[in-house]
Amino acid sequence: MELDPLLLSRIQFAFVVSFHAIFPVFTIGLASYIAVLHGLFYKTANPAWERLAVFWTKVFAVVFGMGVVSGIVMSFQFGTNWSNFAQASANFLGPMLSYEVVTAFFLEAGFLGVLLFGRGKVPQGVHLFAAIMVAVGTFISAFWILAANSWMQTPAGVELIDGRFHVVDWSEAIFNPSFSYRFSHKVLASFLTGGFVVAGVSAWYLLQKRDVEANKKALSMCLWLLLVLAPAQAVVGDFHGLNTLEHQPTKVAAMEGNWETSSHVPLLLFAIPDQANQTNAVEIGIPSLASIILRHDPEGVVPGLTEVAPEEQPPVWLVFWSFRVMVGLGLLMILVAVAGLWLRRGGRLYEHRGFLQLLRLMSVTPFVAVLAGWFVTETGRAPWLVYGLMNQAEALTPSLTGGMALFTLIGYAAVYAVVFWAGVYYLTRVVRQGMQDGEEIQGEVERPMRPLSASHTPFDDGPGSAAPGTQH
Amino acid sequence: MGGIDLAIIWAVIIGFGVIMYVLMDGFDLGLGILFPFAPDEAARDVMMNSVAPVWDGNETWLVLGGAGLLGAFPLVYSVFLPALYIGVFLLLAGLIFRGVAFEFRFKSRANRHWWNRAFCWGSAVAAFAQGAVVGAYIQGFAVEDFVYVGGPLDWLTPFSVLTGFGLMAGYALLGATWLIMKSEGHVQAWAYRITPTLLALVLAVFLIISLWTPFVNPDVWERWFGHIQLIWLFPVLALGCAVLIYQAVRSRREGLPFVATVGLYIFTYLGLVVSKWPVIVPPNYTIWDASSAPESQLFLLIGVLFVIPIVLTYTAWTYWVFRGKVKVGEGYH
Ligand code: HDD
Ligand code: HEM
Ligand code: HEM
């Protein structure tokens, strides 16, 4: 069998970027949460806020470290596997990606060290300021990278001269038509991730009756936040979809599993898309609902996939099902947040074991939803890389052979397996160990700068290691 | 651009970034290479502790270099990375393992020997890959019409293997002299002992490469032997530094060996740069051929000029905070 470098490169890119993406999405949300905790402590001087802040900063340090390591790989991917694309789009993407790095530098250089190691060494106000700046830094970082990605979806502000994009208007290129939707949707996704993880961990501690006071506070706070954000995400997602309908109708057709352009298009709940025959093998749907959602009118005409030639269609089943996973989980999140509100009556929120268990499980859902969302966006754009202007095959590194691509794909999978295992294993230990007392934390002074060293949980139980958590 | 040549400004910035990276990540990679030869586990602790506060910052120069190249000289990015495809993967894999080992070795007891291995192999592979890149750069690349057209292993020649091992030895030398400065007692004594051997190794490789390069690349021959030039100043100064290292070690100076090694690197680097300037994608393309559009270079320059001073200040500050000797058994629990 001939190894296809294009397919292998796509798999490789999807793999490394998905691996990378799960870390930032969490750190963006968590950084803001930590800043809020510091703010609350600053205002109320209640030590429970400080204990929470210190604990979550430890988790943040580990996750941030993994994000940096996997991000370094990303910045070389464009050159190794997509060199034609790199060459063609460097005038715009180069500055965007460099600005992301520059922002990250600025962050690490200036404020991360103070946040991680400054407790007790700098005045409380300065520490709070550093926490806020770290949170702001994560947004700026997301800003640049999403500008790059959105531009590839809905390119604007550039001129194609001799096969290379030249920027004619920076603000049009950066604030391209889908940027504001994608940015808000992504920021909300990050907050939902942070919120559900914190809620899940707090629920777990409450089930074990550890640190009850602080964890009740954390849980209550998260649930209020989720009650607002989960529905907001659905609304923003709806607008995002309408925008996509305008600029990338084929992608929306794939999301809806709709083959023929027509009115009264049903909203499919279940379908098995059959791309070979350009139809759905099975479909169960609610009549006219897709027309209503997308055109606000049952008569509304929704474009179908057959508007373009089969070679120009994305892999329909993948887009279709990823979209359902994301939206399904989004709706579940709304339900859980509302259930939390309901349980507040009579204070059952902190006692209801079933609900607390559910929250524990919910903490993985945002990661799944985020990846599903990216799969919709990225695969729905296929075969285009820069929508309408450059396709994937044109973008590939000409000298790349299938064997080379396979070699590095296996290589990255192996390296990430080890790193991921070590990181997750270590995070579980940090969470098991739980929050520490003020004095305990105070005693730990050390090297600044390196994210992971903010945490002092031992990696394994060899001789001489402190006993980890009391439970288990 | 109103008389200002952005390509030259960017070449200086990237050139500065590269030498910063080589010097700073060089000594911590070097310590990784020396790791298995250390006299005992206590010495390994000292070695790691001496770079622990700074290595992360050292590596950020690499990331800036990667992204900066895409922004300022996309041709370099889109030729070097495909041409060095396998090498780039090895470099990244090495750096990842090393980074993770740095973090978890201290927190590990039962599994510590595994992290020791990850640290050593990660450093060694990363250093070799970087040295091979230098070799490949000197050889030049098969480029047609701005696209790399060579094979996956073109870069791997006897010459680039030699430069790979050469840089490993060079980094080990940097690591050893760094350790002289940062340690005391039996660790320092060991570092003093190995430095002359490493220096001899580096000089041997240096000599072979110097004799070999003109044959690998005739343009370089022309530049060095065409007419007597100031260019000969660099190897002479580099040799001067080598003599200085040797004497400083003999008279048991503590800081000078490291400073002189840094000098050795800088002059060798400048020698390499002038043999190629202004070609950036050898054999044919100059910095002007490789540049992105001027408006893009300018747009990026603003941010970079703003951030580099901050990063430099912060770097200097970290080194200042962690100045002084690292003692056995100090630091971590
Ligand atoms: C700046 C650009 C950029 C950004 C921020 C992202 N991607 Fe992307 N993505 C690409 C640029 C890109 C690309 C270079 O354009 C790819 C490579 C091949 C392709 O089709 O597009 C791609 C492909 C691609 C594919 C495979 C599509 C296919 O080949 O059919 C997946 C699943 C993802 N991406 C997922 C993600 C995730 C989870 C991201 C979250 C961070 C993400 N992308 C961010
Ligand atoms: C495919 C494109 C991407 C590339 C090339 C990329 C590259 C990088 C690099 C090189 C770093 C490390 C910088 C450092 O040294 O600190 C990094 C970290 C980061 N990235 Fe990405 N990234 C990509 C996608 C994304 C996306 C989609 C987001 C979020 C919207 C994102 C958000 C972040 C954040 C917040 C950090 C800071 C570190 C962290 O929180 O883990 N990146 N990225
Ligand atoms: C509940 C209703 C939701 C709707 C209607 C919705 C809608 C959409 C649409 C239409 C897209 C594709 C946009 C495009 O590429 O053109 C998208 C992408 C995405 N969604 Fe959702 N979404 C919902 C919930 C969620 C949730 C709960 C999360 C995560 C916590 C999430 C995370 C993402 C991400 C990360 C992307 C890719 C980035 C982007 O294009 O914005 N979504 N969403």
UniProtKB/TrEMBL annotation, chain A:
The yes or no answer to whether the keyword Cell membrane is present is: yes
Q: Which InterPro entries match?
A: Cyt-d_ubiquinol_oxidase_su_1
Task: Give the record's keywords alphabetically.
Answer: Cell membrane, Electron transport, Heme, Iron, Membrane, Metal-binding, Transmembrane, Transmembrane helix, Transport
> What is the protein's membrane topology class?
Multi-pass membrane protein
Q: Which domain of life is it from?
A: Bacteria
Any one GO molecular function term: electron transfer activity
Pfam families assigned to the protein according to its UniProt record, in alphabetical order? Cyt_bd_oxida_I
> Quick one: where's region Disordered?
449-472
Could you name the Gene Ontology cellular component terms for this entry?
Answer: cytochrome complex; plasma membrane
Chief location of this protein within or outside the cell? membrane
Membrane as UniProt keyword: yes
Residue ranges spanning the membrane: these are 12-41, 53-76, 96-118, 125-147, 187-206, 218-236, 321-343, 355-376, 404-427
Q: Where in the cell is it found?
A: Cell inner membrane; Cell membrane
Its Gene Ontology biological processes?
aerobic electron transport chain
What family does the Swiss-Prot or TrEMBL record give for this protein? Belongs to the cytochrome ubiquinol oxidase subunit 1 family.
Name the UniProt record assigns to this protein: Cyanide insensitive terminal oxidase
From TrEMBL, chain B:
CC annotations in GO:
cytochrome complex; plasma membrane
One of the GO biological process terms: aerobic electron transport chain
- What broad class describes the main subcellular location of this protein? membrane
> Any stretches that span the bilayer, and where are they?
7-24, 75-97, 118-139, 159-180, 192-212, 224-246, 258-278, 298-322
Query: Which GO terms label this protein's molecular function in UniProt?
Result: electron transfer activity; oxidoreductase activity, acting on diphenols and related substances as donors, oxygen as acceptor
Q: Specify the protein's topology with respect to the membrane.
A: Multi-pass membrane protein
Keyword annotations from UniProtKB, A to Z: Cell membrane, Membrane, Transmembrane, Transmembrane helix
The record's listing under InterPro entries reads:
Cyt-d_oxidase_su2
Which top-rank group of organisms is this from?
Bacteria
Similarity section = Belongs to the cytochrome ubiquinol oxidase subunit 2 family.
What protein name is recorded for this chain? Cytochrome d ubiquinol oxidase subunit II
Native species of this protein?
A: Bisbaumannia pacifica
Lineage per the UniProt record: Bacteria, Pseudomonadati, Pseudomonadota, Gammaproteobacteria, Oceanospirillales
Q: Which gene encodes it?
A: qxtB
